[in-house]
């Protein structure tokens, strides 16, 4: 399986609204529940008004389009990283999954996954 590095630094934050965020940004994820509104975006695009934020995340995604019938892909990746003490923040789109890890663990995470047979692009 191929994993594609994403060359931007990301921030994970909570916001009251998206009014301070440019929805034309190249890459972001929005999650909303009845309790919160979360935004994952390039650090450079993070809105000034956040109620909480965590900077210093890097990301990679599973390359290609994943069929919904496939099972265990994210579980396997997260399990391998967990065995090495690397925490993740995962987001999914219709096509694929993106995994974020803290900057200080990024290169080690990619090395660990490469040693388990994943191709890093």
Task: Give a structural overview.
- The protein is α+β, with helices and mostly antiparallel strands and 121 residues long.
- The protein has a single domain (2-120), classed as 2-Layer Sandwich (VC0802-like).
- The chain is 20% helix and 39% strand.
- It is built from 2 helices and 7 strands; from the N terminus they run ββββαββαβ.
- Strands 1, 2, 3, 4, 5, 6 and 7 form a 7-stranded mixed sheet that branches.
- It is globular.
- The chain starts with a strand and ends with a strand.
- The model has no long low-confidence stretch (mean pLDDT 92).
Compose a concise summary of this entry:
The chain is α+β, with helices and mostly antiparallel strands. It has helices at residues 73-83, 103-115, and strands at 2-14, 28-32, 37-42, 52-62, 89-92, 97-102, 119-120. Strand 2 and strand 3 form a beta hairpin.
Total number of β-strand segments? 7
Q: What is the SS-derived class?
A: alpha+beta
Mean pLDDT: 92
Choose one word for the global shape.
globular
Main beta-sheet annotation = 7 strands, mixed
Domain tally:
1
CATH superfamily: VC0802-like
